[in-house]
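G., before I forget:
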Amino acid sequence: MIPLQTSNTLPDWAALAPAIILAVTALALFLIDSIDPNDESPSMLAGVATLGSVLAMVVTGWYLVAGTGMPRTGGAIELFSGQLVVDGMSLFFTFIFTSVTALVCVASYDYLSGRPNQAEYYALVLLAATGMSVMASANSLATAFVALELSSLPSYGLVAYLKNDRGSVEAGLKYFLIGAVSSAVLAYGISLVYASAGVLELAAIAEALGAGIDNTGVLGVGILMVAGGFAFKTASVPFHFWAPEAYEGAPAPVSGFLSSASKAAGFVLAFRVFVTAFPLDVVAGTIDWALAFTVLALVTMTLGNFAAATQDKVKRMLAYSSIGHAGYALIGIAVLTGTADQSYALGASMLHLFVYGFMNTGAFLFVALVEYWGVGRTFEDYNGLAKQAPVACFAMTIFLFSLAGLPIGGGALSKWALLSATASAATLSAYLLAAALIVNSALSLFYYSRVVKAMWIEDPAGDFEVSSYPTGLYAAVVGAAIVTFLLLPAFGVVSGTAFDAAAALF
Amino acid sequence: MVPAEYYLLLSAAMFCIGLFGILTRRNALLFLMSVELMLNAASINLVAFSLQWGNLTGQVFTLFLMALAAAEVAIGIGIILVLYRNFADIDVTKPTTMRW
């Protein structure tokens, strides 16, 4: 293994290879489509899309193992005069994005069969993934904004992909409207930060702010608005209300893609911007964003879980639970005060997002499988499903219990890491967060179990027959389940990388 | 030189007008225009403070912002078009097939 650094064989720009591979694959899909636009067989498109995302995932994994951009091989690689940076954290998150993209592409093969405009669908998925991996590397507010838009704009189109389905169009509209507003809020926040600091590179902002500023009010509002823009991407309060609609109306693989990868992309940006550009000791006189994030985390996880408990549609329940999980992941940034073990807290959040990427995508892909069969959307419609499709239902059980935090998948350990992070902070707000995490996890077990109970215990209501077992969807669901389960024994492998990557940021 | 506070006031006013439009208008196209107003408020800040700080970062970012706003409108118009085909209206309060 050759670590990728200036002194070594590969040039610097090769550190961006995952993003480049994703973008090239997206363009290749358009090319294939333009050569034979009437090709009815989707295997070529799905194959190329899957190949591209798997290749990007393998390259990212290789970089992670080789230690590209990590302290042990010479530190972060800065590109384009510091506009982009490749380090452990960006690679860690790119691995999440590319693996989720691969799962979604495999599952979409069956889900999309017989639908038009498949090339555009796969290309948009890959372009959004490109935007996310650039978001993970963004080292300036300018690149952060451009990358965020690159991941958002294709997502709007993907949500509204089912053009003749009123639910999908409504979801796309709501997602777009709230996305447009929140990106305007983010842009305005960035302009206020620029007004205070005079620069947009993250490290330079911290330097400029440390040297003293005239107008703390402008900066404070700017930082809050930047936080608001990220809250949209992570589907946390106060910009969460698009999430239930968008996830419910969108094609289920897209819901999985958005709620796992897109959410993680928002978090990686929030981590990097707030830790690098607005360190708490520098902006302490202006705004205490740790407190703001504590409140947001508490409200987000409570609202998400309580709303999820009252749903009668499985997909909408998963959408609200995804808001709840955004609240859990916010803990890592909320406890970043002086007393906490900061790199541990950030690492715990990264781990939760990593495990969440697999278990949540898997759960949504199971919903995609159920939609493929034409089963209804409510809990009752899932009754007795396990008699017909035991393997898929077993996988779904793993996802749900892992989401709830039972030790059947990696979710238990990542929640444990978050709890330890709050314990290390040992402040009142951290204990509040810990209590909320425990109470909400207990509550979430209730509504996740409803699905499990429906699948395994209840008798089927009608005489429903599962007619076919689609290979792609099954492969994706079972693959995600195996990874979710394996993350339980193999948690140490991932956690070492995550904590190292987080430590490099401070 | 015009003091920086005036630019901040102008942009804040524009941002608030845009926000007001979003909260009160039901027509999707007016909604898009209001968002455009909010983005332009950010551009005013960036250009004004680019002069104030004596670097070009803000002006260059404004160019990106304008391009992104155009891209956003392109997607938005597409979505509004399928909205009209499905609901025969572009009132953003009409689509309510999903409620909790």
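Chain B has three helices and no strands. The mean pLDDT of chain B is 91.

More on Monday.
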